[in-house]
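Milestone 3.1: sequence recovery, worked example.
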């Protein structure tokens, strides 16, 4: 458990010598340090463009099974596997996720958030924990918006974690949480009844990373560029020295806790690089990985010495991690460009959205109907969730005036039809809409 006394140490022990029969050699997606700042767009900035603007370097590494390794703890390695049962079923987890025109089940969502907050407090000794974000992942059900993140990264840079700390402290209404220590972390679990066979989450023992040499700052740019933020990527120069771990056959009664940021600069484990990983020699007919991760901040107000930043010195540039995305400050022209790029890359939509797309977009009038659906923006993808009707109409007019809009929509539908046909052919007993 995280201590509340000043027992900090810079001791740099590692456990890379621990071996298991489930250790494997895998290829991970590092980034090559070219001197240019990488950028990752959830939707390519130009139709047909690349989402990642940088240079990947694919390195083979030794991936170790963490089962039975008691040295891998949050404060030592930056991650920890713990046993934890949940009251939610697999179907419940999908109900707390968002789809194109559907609101999440708030009761189930809050129930799971409470489970995880209690787990983190029990495991770490934190006095308070607040979940601020979540995502359910399944490449074959929720599409790329909830797909596997297969390049090495840390979700949030230090500056963003500090801004989120400032925001959440304001919600606690107690000045004691401004002091001590805070940790931004994730809780990741398998939600299926079966163990994870493929694409588990791999985590890197932070003690094996050469700081700051191995870390590359990058930009993560969502559909609304106003919400862009800084992430960290891992350079490949010392890749063979890094200690990578996963939990073989991870069940839904096991949770992976890992840090994004720890305000205590002396801790050995302060931030955890992670990635989905493709395991070798796994039969292709096994069930896909189904998982949920939640992001939260744990507060330790009695921790000595104080390691929390002064709230007045935290920059507001870039904003905090929003609890809900209601930013509507983008111009209609920029929003229209985001929507056009999204629609022209309809294969990047969740599968349910693809099904709706294929059903509605069968004519020019159908293309306009689907655009109207997108303009509702209930998930806040385009910065129109809180916009008035006049702004939404302005965006619609700009999109509809695009010369090739309807033709592009029909071409995208044909591509989705072909993809759906291929999926049905590959797995005829699966519901592919």
């Amino acid at each position: 458990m995280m201590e509340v006394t000043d027992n900090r140490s810079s001791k740099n022990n590692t456990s890379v010598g621990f071996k298991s029969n489930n250790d494997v050699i895998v290829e991970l997606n590092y980034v090559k340090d070219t001197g240019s700042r990488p950028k990752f767009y959830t939707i390519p900035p130009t139709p047909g463009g690349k989402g990642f603007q940088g240079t990947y370097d694919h390195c083979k590494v030794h991936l170790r099974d963490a089962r039975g390794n008691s040295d891998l703890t949050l404060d030592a390695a930056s991650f920890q596997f713990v046993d934890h049962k949940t009251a939610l079923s697999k179907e419940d987890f999908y109900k707390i996720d968002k789809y194109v025109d559907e609101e999440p089940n708030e009761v189930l969502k809050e129930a799971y958030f409470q489970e995880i907050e209690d787990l983190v407090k029990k495991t770490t000794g934190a006095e308070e924990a607040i979940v601020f974000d979540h995502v359910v992942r399944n490449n074959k059900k929720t599409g790329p918006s909830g797909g596997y993140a297969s390049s090495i990264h840390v979700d949030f840079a230090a500056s963003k974690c500090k801004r989120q700390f400032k925001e959440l402290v304001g919600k606690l209404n107690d000045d004691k949480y401004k002091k001590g220590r805070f940790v931004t972390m994730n809780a990741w679990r398998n939600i299926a009844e079966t163990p994870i066979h493929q694409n588990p989450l791999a985590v890197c023992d932070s003690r094996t990373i050469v700081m700051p040499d191995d870390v590359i700052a990058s930009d993560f740019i969502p559909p609304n560029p106003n919400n862009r933020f800084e992430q960290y990527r891992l350079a490949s120069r010392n890749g063979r020295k890094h200690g990578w771990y996963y939990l073989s056959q991870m069940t839904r009664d096991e949770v992976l806790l890992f840090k994004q940021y720890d305000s205590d600069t002396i801790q050995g484990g302060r931030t955890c690089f992670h990635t989905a990983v493709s395991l070798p020699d796994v039969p292709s007919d096994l069930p896909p990985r189904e998982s949920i991760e939640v992001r939260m901040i744990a507060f330790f107000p009695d921790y000595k010495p104080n390691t929390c930043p002064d709230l007045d010195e935290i920059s507001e540039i870039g904003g905090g991690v929003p609890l809900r995305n209601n930013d509507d400050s983008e111009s209609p022209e920029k929003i229209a460009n985001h929507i056009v790029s999204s629609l022209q890359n309809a294969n990047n939509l969740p599968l349910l959205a693809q099904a709706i797309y294929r059903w509605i977009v069968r004519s020019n009038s159908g293309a306009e109907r689907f655009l109207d659906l997108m303009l509702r923006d209930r998930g806040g993808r385009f910065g129109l969730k809180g916009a008035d009707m006049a702004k939404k109409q302005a965006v619609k007019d700009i999109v509809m005036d695009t010369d090739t809009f309807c033709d592009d929509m029909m071409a995208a539908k044909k591509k989705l039809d072909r993809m759906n046909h291929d999926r049905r052919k590959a797995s005829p007993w699966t519901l592919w809409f």
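Residues 405-426 form the longest helix (22 residues). The two ends are 47 Å apart (CA to CA).
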